[in-house]
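All the exercises in this workshop are built on plain-text protein records. The record below serves as our worked example for the rest of this section.
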Amino acid sequence: MKHSHKNDPIKKFSKVSKAVLLGLLYNMSAMSSVNAADEEDKEQQLEQIMITGTRLVSRNVIIQKQNSAQIVDSIGQDEVGGLAAGNAAELLAKVSGLNPFEDLSGRGSGGSSGPEVRFVSIRGVRPDLNITLLDGLTLATSNFENRAVYLDAFPVNLAGRTDVIKTFTPEMNPGAIGGQIDFITRSGVDLAEPLFTVTAETGKTEMDDSVQSVDAPLRLEALYAGQITKNVGLALSASYNQRDLGKPSQLTRGRSRSIDFPSEDDVRVVREHRILSESAPTKRIGLSAKLDWTPDEDTYVWFTTAYNDLDQTINHNKTDVRIPSSAEGLTLEPNGQSGTLRIDDSSVSFGTGRSAFSEVGEFVNKADLALFQAGINKFVSDDITVNAKAGYSEANNSREAEYYLFMREGGITDVSFDSSNIYEPSIEVINPSPESYFDPSKYSLLYRNMLPEKAKEQVLDAIVDIAFNADFDDEGWGLKAGAQYRTTERSYDFDWTTHYDIANETVEGTGYTLNDVFAENSSNLSPPGSSDGFPALFADINKINKIITPSLSDTAAFRFENLDVNKFGSDYAIDEKVTSLFVQGVYQSEDIQSIFGLRYEKTTTDGAGYREANGIYETSENNGSYDFVLPSLLANYNIQEDLILRFAASQTLGRPAFPEISPSGEKESIGLQNTLTRSNPDLKPRLSTNLDISLEWYFSSDSMATIGLFSKNIEDEILTETFTDVTIDGVLYDEVTQPINASKATIKGVELSFVSYLPEPYNNFGISSNAIFMDTSFDTKGERGEVDFLLYQPDSIINISLLYTDENFDASLSWNKTGDLPTVFNPSDANGDRYNEGKATLSAKLLYNISQSTQVYINGTNLTSEDSVELTGEGYMYHNRLMGRTINVGVTHSF
């Protein structure tokens, strides 16, 4: 049925407001291709439905998915009461087909790899190959590594609803392979009654506080939305989040597969044993405001602004013992996997690679995101609409990594090793005694390193389109055309300064030692791998700040060296401009929906940085461009009222990360070897051809069963490769490492979901489940040829939740299993690959409605205390991190 928006615009806006509150329809600023099919039918459904909690979430997801033109999953923040979500990434991890990701770069907030969830994958596709938007506009990110938006710096309550769109149409930003995450801000102008809620939450995270104190988590949120006048609305939100997420862990990693001994073949010896402990106190503040206005019956105008600030300090400690290749005196046990050997570094000079050290660090990370957006939707006539919106966002990230390194005195050390258990390989000192070997007075301060880095990104994004008969409540043929312009300015700077302890350089042991700043409680810490034969040996950063730090400016005590000139090769500035034009046709009948068309994208880049030439870093500039015509087709057929067949085909892009294409390069000398690590400005974007087909059965208002097949054929996949004996600008390098375009990659998968509640009298019980199984491969163009995995792409993700809902209680018990996740690719040796071992986790939620306006809840995550284990390509443990349980309790009150 065709609606006349002009004749009754206020009624239309009233319906939109109800949809925003209940998560059934899309915000007026959202794309028309994901609007609901029949608002009046849905309004009649709402009058008959009086449900809350998890059941409301499930029902809204079902209705929205059924009436969308695309394959979409959504979650509304108004419906999330009691969900354990400290940031936007944790909230999105609850959406079907999305999987939580920690920062795997090792250079995340404060320079740590987690363990907080910072990103999500879509259908297993890693976060930097998806795109994150706010009301359809691109957001800036200060991510040091790639284009993925830091969702941990994004407050949960900024958006009223979040849409995850897995298929593409011409009007969508095509800079993604997995899909698009669009945060839709809440509206105030159409609320007949104001909405005002507050939430307070605290809890307990299992952590070892022997070395660093741990503060209890605290989350405070407030939200207001309502009308200022009949035609003006306002939505305000504020949030404060404090949590500590550090974990003790163990790294046992091999720098090579084995040590070769003349009398033995293929003897595996643990090459390095490391005990690591980190605490990560984190504070976030989020503020947002949206003003929307209906100046007349045909016009809707909105303005949004937000500011989000993250402040995190990671306290970092580690104890490390390494077995060099020069080790001798091997004695093997009968199993051939354990024994003893001797390390002799008595002649190794101080500071050049002793076998044992202790390191303490403090990594301070400050990140912020500020944005302003505005838009207008205008009904020119019954059939013609004009939409325009623009946004500016700026993201900053500064990281100061401070390290103090204490190196043990040289000598002869006998150690035992045991490699028989791949999950718990170990090294223990047997002579001298562990008490003597791990005596903190024998560890002398070598240096203090300060490595600050900062990134800044500014994004300006503008979109305008005009549509004729293109809403999905308009039957027949329609047309929509538009243009988008986006400019992104990104800069990155890295510095490096060192203070050397002069006394220890002159006579080892006469300067500062670990004993001066020893963390007395570190012997009580028991991370994986610690034992009487290998205790934790940590420094206290607070003692360091009191005893050592004030002396750094004393030139008689410390020799200062500015190494920044050697790191110019990391600095860059780049400006990327993208101009897009699109045209799409729309066809709507009682049983068929279709969107088809083309999008033209032209991208230009201008960069400046530094490259090493003949031993000197010189300024370097480059520019480039590429353009694509990207087709897409989407068609839905209603086989019957409750059965939908969907098909989608599209081409999209996976753009290179800015560090990969900036004109920069960094030379390093390792012994007699010259190595070069550099970017590749000639990288091409990935081009993905995407196919989707799905069958969806909605057999009741609370139930659905779906099956979908998807395929992504990716041309010009990007990987980092190392080449040997390369001559550049007349200089011969033993190794050159840079990103290159591989030939192709493929992702094929099946996606399943099932949601249902039992019939009476057990209709309070239900189940919600989804699963993705994937088969991936890529051609490396190198000596390993085609391999059967993609980095950060698990082979399976399974979620099953048992549900219970009644008038007073809302409860769920959820099980998640994620398959093996490749993290490192070695271009020449499969044994050098690394992957996170698949694991299963259990979580639970219980919510109680004290009254119509007050709810209390308790959440538990990782209830079985599953650890995070990283293995080498041959299946040996590389990194084991304790994760522990997290329990949160909270209260939400509505006024």
